[in-house]
């Protein structure tokens, strides 16, 4: 009888925690931050890109403020195409990125490690020649000052050694123009790939959710 009572107690606690998480997940993304910030010289284009689940921050590959090709190298991709103009950056769980090409490939062990924050992370980098605005791709113009802040946030997300970003040697790329690099931080139920993108927008003083784990939590602020 004592065992049953203990079991019921743990089940009740689990259900309470789950309900609390869902309520937080639904409510906090509704709260917008950085709405009233005024920018001068809003001239640098950046994009927020989603595939319906995961968001990337897309930046010009080269401008007077940053030349990403010094660290994010074309030769690291299969195509080795040097004619791209934009780079999309996404942070996420390394196990998801490298071991889960489709949802059908998802392992319980990978999901549990990711949810608990015990696994390592990776940066997924994709090169694009053009960007097309649509419901899944929002364009923003930001100031040089805020772009510099965004650069700093992104640079701090990469692991580096002797000043070089650390490429992950893997065949688990998504196409001919993408590559993975080692990243700092841990993925969890409370900090996902979309949380990272949301934090990137906050760092650049752009509109963002107070907190979100979903792409919709970001895009609701960019109708």
UniProtKB/TrEMBL annotation:
Any Pfam family hit: DUF2459
Organism domain of life: Bacteria
Transmembrane domains' residue ranges: 7-31
The entry's keywords: Membrane, Transmembrane, Transmembrane helix
Record InterPro entries: CHP02117
Name this polypeptide is given: TIGR02117 family protein
Species annotation: Flavobacterium aureirubrum
């Amino acid at each position: 009888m004592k065992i049953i009572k203990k079991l019921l107690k743990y089940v009740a606690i689990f259900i309470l925690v789950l309900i609390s998480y869902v309520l937080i997940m639904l409510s906090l993304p509704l709260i917008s931050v950085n709405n009233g910030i005024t920018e001068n010289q809003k001239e640098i284009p950046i994009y927020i890109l989603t595939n319906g689940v995961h968001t990337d921050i897309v930046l010009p590959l080269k401008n007077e403020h940053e030349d990403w090709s010094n660290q994010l190298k074309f030769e690291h991709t299969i195509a080795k195409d040097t004619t791209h103009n934009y780079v999309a950056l996404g942070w996420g769980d390394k196990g998801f990125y490298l071991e889960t090409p489709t949802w059908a490939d998802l392992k319980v062990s990978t999901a549990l490690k990711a949810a608990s924050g015990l696994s390592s992370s990776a940066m997924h980098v994709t090169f694009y020649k053009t960007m097309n605005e649509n419901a899944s791709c929002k364009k923003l113009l930001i100031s040089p000052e805020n772009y510099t802040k965004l650069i700093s946030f992104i640079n701090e997300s990469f692991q580096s050694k002797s000043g070089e970003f650390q490429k992950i040697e893997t065949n688990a790329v998504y196409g001919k123009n993408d590559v993975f690099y080692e990243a700092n931080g841990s993925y969890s139920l409370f900090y996902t790939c979309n949380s990272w993108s949301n934090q990137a927008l906050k760092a650049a003083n752009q509109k963002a959710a107070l907190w979100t784990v979903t792409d919709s939590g970001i895009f609701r602020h960019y109708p």
